[in-house]
Automatic annotation (TrEMBL):
<dbReference type="GO" id="GO:0016887">
    <property type="term" value="F:ATP hydrolysis activity"/>
</dbReference>
<feature type="domain" description="ChlI/MoxR AAA lid">
    <location>
        <begin position="227"/>
        <end position="298"/>
    </location>
</feature>
<dbReference type="Pfam" id="PF17863">
    <property type="entry name" value="AAA_lid_2"/>
</dbReference>
<dbReference type="InterPro" id="IPR011703">
    <property type="entry name" value="ATPase_AAA-3"/>
</dbReference>
<feature type="domain" description="ATPase AAA-3">
    <location>
        <begin position="34"/>
        <end position="164"/>
    </location>
</feature>
<protein>
    <submittedName>
        <fullName>MoxR family ATPase</fullName>
    </submittedName>
</protein>
<dbReference type="InterPro" id="IPR041628">
    <property type="entry name" value="ChlI/MoxR_AAA_lid"/>
</dbReference>
<dbReference type="InterPro" id="IPR027417">
    <property type="entry name" value="P-loop_NTPase"/>
</dbReference>
<dbReference type="InterPro" id="IPR050764">
    <property type="entry name" value="CbbQ/NirQ/NorQ/GpvN"/>
</dbReference>
<dbReference type="GO" id="GO:0005524">
    <property type="term" value="F:ATP binding"/>
</dbReference>
<dbReference type="Pfam" id="PF07726">
    <property type="entry name" value="AAA_3"/>
</dbReference>
């Protein structure tokens, strides 16, 4: 069993019956991306993030986003020390390895924007001074479905920063029974062991970067992404950042499958979760009750993958 598989096995001890979601979060971690979990409350979004942080022995911090959360709560702030006559930087919550932004779409636009530099650059700037965020670094944000009390749409620029957007869904009845039995008389989170370290994650990320990607695979990815920009059902297609994200995730998929090269199947696995949340549908799509998933499915069916020899 590989180290990545051991990490996923530990998370599965408390996040029951959703091994596909655990795998996708692991793919994003290995591909140096961030994850947006969009679902109703109570389905295990926080449990997933906490278990992942324990399994990789990561410094974990969480903020419950509400309208009164300030940008300085995220980035930190400067405080004047009268005795020393100097300004000291008070660390913000974002300076950790795994940051959980819980119910991000309840916060103000200013507070949401405070995450952007950290997610993209791996640092925060306070009073003109940049502060590096420890590595490895990953943001897992959760949001309730739009239309829930107190929620608002995330801007397109912030949605584009998330490498994947996942929906957990309810567990099956059998898995829910299993969950109840595991919780009875003990905290299942106590059973999650730290089987990896931050250094291990950084080493796996370096291995992922060495996975070979044939030029025809890159051209295939670009054709798929370009198809979102020239589609009557899509008003705003995926950006070049999306192409980079798909390529990195495909490398991570090949790594988890034990290969040192990417195949079209790797691209097919990661493309929907990487692209769907970046699209804005046109009025035509809404009139015909066409979802982003439907559009992505059609694009994948109509774009021929390369035949590598």
């Amino acid at each position: 069993m590989t180290l990545a598989e051991r990490v996923m096995k530990e998370v599965a001890k408390v996040f029951v019956g959703k091994n596909d979601i655990i795998r996708k979060v692991m793919l994003a971690l290995l591909a140096q991306g961030h994850v947006l979990l969009e679902d109703r409350p109570g389905v295990g979004k926080t449990t997933l993030a906490l278990a992942m942080s324990k399994a990789i022995r990561a410094e974990y911090r969480r903020i419950q986003f509400t309208p009164d959360v300030m940008p300085s709560d995220i980035t930190g702030f400067s405080m004047y020390d009268k005795e020393r006559g100097e300004w000291n930087y008070e660390r913000g919550a974002i300076l950790c390895n795994l940051f959980l932004a819980d119910e991000i779409n309840r916060a103000s636009s200013r507070t949401q924007a405070a995450l952007l530099e950290a997610m993209e650059e791996g640092r925060v700037t306070v009073d003109g001074i940049a502060h590096e965020i420890p590595k490895p670094f990953m943001v897992i944000a959760t949001q309730n479905p739009v239309g829930s009390a107190g929620t608002q749409l995330l801007p397109e620029s912030q949605m584009d920063r998330f490498m994947v957007c996942l929906s957990i869904g309810y567990p099956s009845p059998a898995d829910e029974v299993d969950m109840l039995q595991r919780k009875r008389g003990r905290n299942p989170m106590d059973s999650v062991e730290a089987v990896a370290s931050g250094e291990d994650v950084l080493a796996m990320r370096l291995d992922v970067e060495t996975i070979y990607v044939h030029q025809e695979i890159d051209e295939y990815i670009v054709r798929l992404v370009s198809a979102t920009r020239d589609n009557s059902f899509i008003r705003l297609g995926a950006s070049p950042r999306a192409s980079v994200a798909v390529a990195r995730l495909a490398q991570a998929s090949a790594f988890l499958r034990g290969r040192d090269y990417v195949l079209p199947d790797d691209v097919l696995e990661v493309f929907p979760d990487c692209i769907t949340h970046r699209l804005l549908l046109s009025p035509k799509a809404k009139a015909e009750h066409c979802s982003p998933e439907d559009v992505i499915r059609t694009i994948l069916e109509n774009t021929r993958p390369p035949r590598l020899h």
